[in-house]
Amino acid sequence: MPEVSPAVGRRSVLLMAPAVAAATVADTVRADARRPAPDGRAGADASNARIDVHHHYTAPAWRTWATAQELVNPAQLPWWTEWELDDTLAVMDQAGIATAVVSLAMPVRGFRDRAQLRESITVAQEAVTELTRAHPDRFAFFAPLFPDDLETSRWSFARGLDELGAVGVQMRANTRGVYLGDASHDKLLAELNERSAVINTHPHELPGSDPAQHAVPGVPSFFCDFPLDTTRAAVNLILNGTLDRYPDLSFILPHGGGFLPFIADRMAAFAGFLTPEIEPARVRDYLHRFYFDTAAPMGAASAAALFATADPGRILYGSDWPASPAGTISDVAAPALDRESGLTTLQRRRVNRENALRLMPALAGRRTAAAR
């Protein structure tokens, strides 16, 4: 049966600082700079109305259920599973996040059988549905998928998208060592393609690694391994022709696409060494097919690399709450994006809100922070 592991590894140390490089990012659409922002303020960057596409939600009701099922030991669960509504809303307000699109985090190594897995999903989906109905302007959600269980995945996304109002689905970069884009995923992706689905992805421990061990002493998996896991998944989606076969799917890569922006030129230069080969001229086109979120945090250097690689209309705001501490989100990541990234007012407005609205129009009915 499928494993459902933590969305991110436990972080023993988190040291983040704003970038200090003074890079300038080209504004590809400068002519639109005076166009009114969503809240009607000319030139506003929507920094008080962000749409966050990178938010981990472990429902308190799910923790209670999983504890009763003896699937988890509350004392051993990572801190980010202690999700509290009041704390979350306070962080969102402080960081200018109007709406968070949450992913359902169910940190269990394995379930007894498919029935127990479905019960777990049901508990989590019912909890998030209650949350979104109680706070429709603040929360939306992605329905969870399990690529190694097509039947459960089909049931989960049909219930989530058709009955409960999910705005997309979520998948891991690799499941038991099998990366997104593998031929075993084709039936699932074909059905999602028919729905023009948004697929939010997230990295995991690298295949063959032990989550309880650090491959490099003192370096947790989220620090280096997670960006590599995302990069591997993206390259696999390109190599296996997934983006060509299913052109109506929209894949969101977290953490600025991992290492992808930094190896774009390397991919083009050595495309002939890949199997199958890729035409160097097509590498840039493929990279423009992905969406990227800013959960990093993102300063001048990383923003410059991302905007040089990605389609500026496909970059989305991400916080990584509650895996990232509140101080990192409000005092490091937000200032880095708003003031130190080198982005123009127009670019910030699009990253903070407008790009997400174009990708997921169902979010458009939610009020901005300024209107509340």
The termini sit apart by 45 Å
CATH-scheme architecture: Alpha-Beta Barrel
Low-pLDDT residue spans:
1-43, 368-372
For the largest beta-sheet, the strand count, sense and barrel status come to: 8 strands, parallel
**Alpha-beta content class:** alpha/beta
Strand content: 5-15%
Radius of gyration, Cα only, in angstroms?
A: 20 Å
Shape designation: globular
- Per the CATH scheme, the topology name is TIM Barrel
What oligomeric arrangement do these chains adopt? Answer: single chain
Mean pLDDT: 86
Please provide the count of β strands: 10
Give the number of helices.
12
Domains counted in the coordinates: how many?
1
Layout of strands and helices, then pairs:
Elements (H helix, E strand, L loop, with lengths): L49 E8 L2 H9 L16 H11 L1 E8 L9 H21 L4 E6 L5 H14 L4 E5 L1 E2 L2 E2 L6 H9 L3 E5 L18 H19 L2 H4 L4 E4 L10 H6 L10 H8 L3 E3 L6 H10 L5 E2 L9 H15 L4 H15 L13
Parallel strand pairs: 1-2, 2-3, 3-4, 4-7, 7-8, 8-9, 9-10
Antiparallel strand pairs: 5-6
Helix pairs in contact: 1-3
Detailed description of the structure:
The protein is built from twelve helices and ten strands. Helix 4 links the parallel strand 3 (139-144) and strand 4. The protein starts with 49 loop residues before the first strand and ends in a 13-residue tail after the last helix. Strands 1-2-3-4-7-8-9-10 form an eight-stranded parallel β-sheet. The protein has a two-stranded antiparallel sheet with strand order 5-6. The chain is an alpha/beta fold. The protein has a single domain (48-365), classed as Metal-dependent hydrolases (TIM Barrel). Helices cover 38% and strands 12% of the residues. It is globular. Mean pLDDT is 86; it is low at 1-43 and 368-372.
